[in-house]
Design goal:
There is one protein chain. With about 325 residues, this protein is of the alpha+beta class. The protein is built from eight helices and 16 strands. The chain has helices at about 10-25, 25-30, 90-95, 100-120, 135-145, 160-170, 235-240, 305; strands at about 30, 40-50, 70-75, 80-90, 125-130, 155-160, 185-190, 195-200, 205-210, 215-220, 225-230, 240-255, 260-270, 285-290, 290-295, 310-315. Helix 1 (about 10-25) crosses helix 4 (about 100-120). It is elongated.
């Protein structure tokens, strides 16, 4: 007799619990559960950005620049993340933990795939601060670029590679505050009000600091689980008592507010020389913005030197 001790509802909950607990979605991204459509369909999303405009003035002076806000419309394709778990009836009867463990890993596997896309969106931010080391100053400068009021009421986090964790601890020393009530997987402390997390696949020499408003994860309401058993099996599968479970998630990870994410780079910003009078399409250009830089989109005929633009490069490790 075929052994199907688990309902699709149970399996779906198993996957969904893993998806939430591993990714901690409520902390790191904004969740929009109203996604509709199928894999391959596109959705247009506005990516907002802003430039700083605060100036120190003397008597009789006025502002010569203004804060500007704009957006770029980007097209995203709805992604389908799916995995498959197979087991025989005899295996499930011999080991009752087989299916729960397999489905827990299905959730972890979905997390790894989705998390990679989310991290990729943070890397698209247009704001950057540079320095020769990761210390208190670079975090303070990055915070200033977020243009946030009441920082004590805003949750700001940063992802750090394991290779940079040791440097942070040495450089920050007593500035790295450990608050036990905030402890969680990957958390190593707080500096300048920013919660620092270790991310094993983060890029060494680069830290992405953000609030959860920076990236939005558009998802369907629940993880879908399809279990192929009993009468739904092919003749061969039924004859060998093979069960197959598919887990899938439809989603879009998108950088929706570039003003809420800053790239902290161990590197150097170099002003374009007077010989660079035309745009080099292979380069990314930046303009000074507050205590850092903001990526610019060159227009036809722009002169990088006269515009006062910069190029930014990471330090050699």
């Amino acid at each position: 007799m075929p052994n199907t001790p688990y309902s699709n509802f149970f399996l779906s909950n198993e996957v969904e619990d893993q998806f939430n607990s591993h990714l901690d979605l409520q902390r790191f991204v904004t969740i929009d559960r109203g996604l509709v459509g199928t894999a391959g369909m596109t959705r247009k999303i506005n990516r907002y950005r802003a430039t700083n405009g605060t100036q120190k003035l003397t008597k009789g002076q006025g502002n010569s620049t203004s804060i500007t806000v704009g957006y770029t419309q980007k097209e995203y394709v709805i992604a389908l993340a799916q995995n498959r778990f197979e087991f025989y009836d005899e295996e499930a009867m011999e080991d009752p933990m087989l299916v729960p463990v397999g489905m827990r890993h299905a959730g972890t596997d979905l997390f790894n795939t989705t998390n990679a896309d989310i991290y990729g969106e943070y890397k698209k931010t247009t704001l950057v601060t540079v320095g020769d080391k990761f210390d208190f100053a670079i975090f303070a400068n990055a915070q200033a670029m977020l243009n946030l009021e009441n920082l004590e009421d805003v949750k700001i986090f940063a992802f750090v590679s394991p290779n940079d964790v040791a440097e942070l601890r040495k450089e920050l020393k007593d500035d790295l505050k450990y608050v036990e009530s905030f402890a969680r997987s990957g958390y190593i402390g707080t500096v300048a009000g920013v919660d620092i997390f270790t991310k094993k696949d983060a890029v060494t020499g680069s830290i992405y600091m953000a609030t959860k408003e920076a990236v939005t994860l558009f998802v369907k309401k629940r993880t879908e689980v399809e279990q192929i058993t009993s009468g739904k099996r092919s003749e061969t599968a039924a004859n060998t008592r093979l069960n197959t479970i598919f887990s899938r998630k439809y989603y879009i990870a998108a950088l929706t507010d570039a003003t809420k994410c800053v790239w902290l780079l161990k590197g150097v910003a170099t002003a374009c020389p007077n010989t660079e009078t035309t745009v080099d399409s292979s380069k990314t250009y930046y303009a000074q913005s507050g205590l850092g830089y903001v990526e610019v989109t060159p227009e036809q005929g722009d002169n990088p030197y006269s515009k006062g633009w910069y190029t930014i490069a990471p330090s050699s490790f």
